[in-house]
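Minutes, project huddle
Topic: does the predicted pose make sense with 1,6-di-O-phosphono-beta-D-fructofuranose bound?
PN asked that the exact inputs be recorded in the minutes so nobody has to dig through chat later. Recorded below.
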Amino acid sequence: MNISALQTARYAYKPKTPPLLAKPVASIKAEPGPATRAETDHQELAAIFPHTYGRPIVTFKAGKNPSVSQKINVGVILSGGQAPGGHNVIAGLFDGIKKGHPESKLYGFLGGPSGIIGDRAVEITAKTMDAYRNTGGFDIIGSGRTKIETPEQFEKTLATAKKRRLRAVVVIGGDDSNTNAALLAEFFASRGSDIQVIGVPKTIDGDLKNDYIETSFGFDTAVKTYSELIGNIARDANSAKKYWHFIKLMGRAASHICLECALQTRPNIALISEEVEKKGQTLGEVIDQICDGVAARAARGLNYGIVLVPEGLVEFIPEMKKLISGLSDLMAHKAGEFSGLSSPEAQFDFVARHLSADSAEFFGTLPRDFRLQLLMDRDPHGNVQVSRIETEKLLVRMTEEKLEKMKARGAFTGVFDTQTHFLGYEGRSAFPTNFDADYCYSLGFTAFLLIAGGVTGYISSVRNLARPAKEWIAGGIPLTMMMNMEQRHGSRKPVIKKALVDLEGKPFREFAAKRKTWAVETSFLYPGAIQYFGPDEVCNQPTKTIVLEAGGRRVGAGAAGRKKTAAGGGKTGGVKSAAGRSPSPRGASAGKKPAAKG
Ligand code: FBP
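Predicted holo structure (tokens), as shared on screen:
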């Protein structure tokens, strides 16, 4: 393996954890709180998960735990899109297992969930593990988006777990993969198997969060990578003063990434999909908003700027949402006919005949390349692949057209030259920040403690993240308490609620209070590259989203900290929990059913 100097230095990094996790594992015990219940759909969920529903939240405390030293086999799966820190989750899990018993084994299933269905695995040895500590990517075992769905796949998964004599399967994934983990735990239990299933919250999108999961791992590194690049572009724009840069950002349905990057870099315009939906803005109105911003700066002689665009925007614009849903239905229900069409023109003609009249008309107004992108294959969950739709280019084109018209009537006197960018893959496999390296290692180690605690259908939870790692709290949350029932593919399904940007939440309110100034004045911030070594305030800051949601205090902000509750944390819901209060996704927008994901 070729190793860079930074990689060599990162091998030596020792992740910071809650102090309890550094104690001998036989002196850490799981302490259960009262029984839990889901916030909604309690009865339906209790009926679907008769063996795993209603379990208590678990917190780890100092105390004797003799069963932790048993020799066990554990399997681990990386599921869905890459997120920085995945290797450290595996490292924490590996170290926990080996601390429990040096002959315990960790098997990594290859290429995501399909690896366990097809029993393709490697044993992760100390030598392998050491080559991946504190590094980005999921390449230690690879990832995939296969969903364990059919009865046959569930049976095969159980067969693999039995064959390898697994004590537990750890699923590292997003909301859909953890929903899958809950179903797997219930399936194993219903078949009389005591093989445990433990989830770990992963996704750069930041939308797997609630009162107990303060953030999914990878979000921290991804937003800091993108913010560095946006800052660099902004500085270039401010130097040359000749381009408007339209930057699309990953994040799928939720705009958490776009919002955090806006807070970190102060662009002139940042669109937030959830707000566009709430206001019911049409595509034309979004373009008007951009044109007004461009014209306002032009009036001050500033013919340059930065526009941030969340990649899921198109699905939140009412007429576009209706069109996409019509197209997806059509492509699913008439798949045979559709795939037999020989040319794009034949496809356009086909959809025009089958869509509702207004959607067909709207489809016809869109540029040809954009229409082709809307007709691309859906992902394994049936979702349009927003990362492949060039929304930023569509916005530029439509803004140009509108500005031309404004120019003709004297409403715009400036120049509008543009560059477009898409930031996504650049951040998903970056070297994890210290925060993600620490958080992920702690999550992995906690997953081992949950296994040792004998629970199943839980997600590893490390809380109080706005504070330094020495104040973090490790525990486990029953997956079923994060679930609700949603309509998916024509029937009601139990799913973990996805958290979209909360328009009443502090991060959005902070942005909304400042954006008018940022729109016209050049207020760019240049965050610079992620730093791994150096002073605390440079290397160990959590995201602004975490800090604002926790009440605005930053790591290292002084000993006073927040007032802690009995469970030791200061975060609103995560610590009031044990009374059986159910969580609400912190950012969930009422009524919205966002796309499923890995
Ligand atoms: P997960 O939801 O699986 O964590 O992946 C997130 C994500 O990076 C999205 O932001 C993006 O839309 C999507 O994956 C891209 O998927 P792919 O890797 O299949 O191109």
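Observations noted during the meeting:
- The chain has two domains: 5-218+432-498+570-577, 223-427.
- The mean pLDDT is 91.
No decisions taken; revisit at the next huddle.
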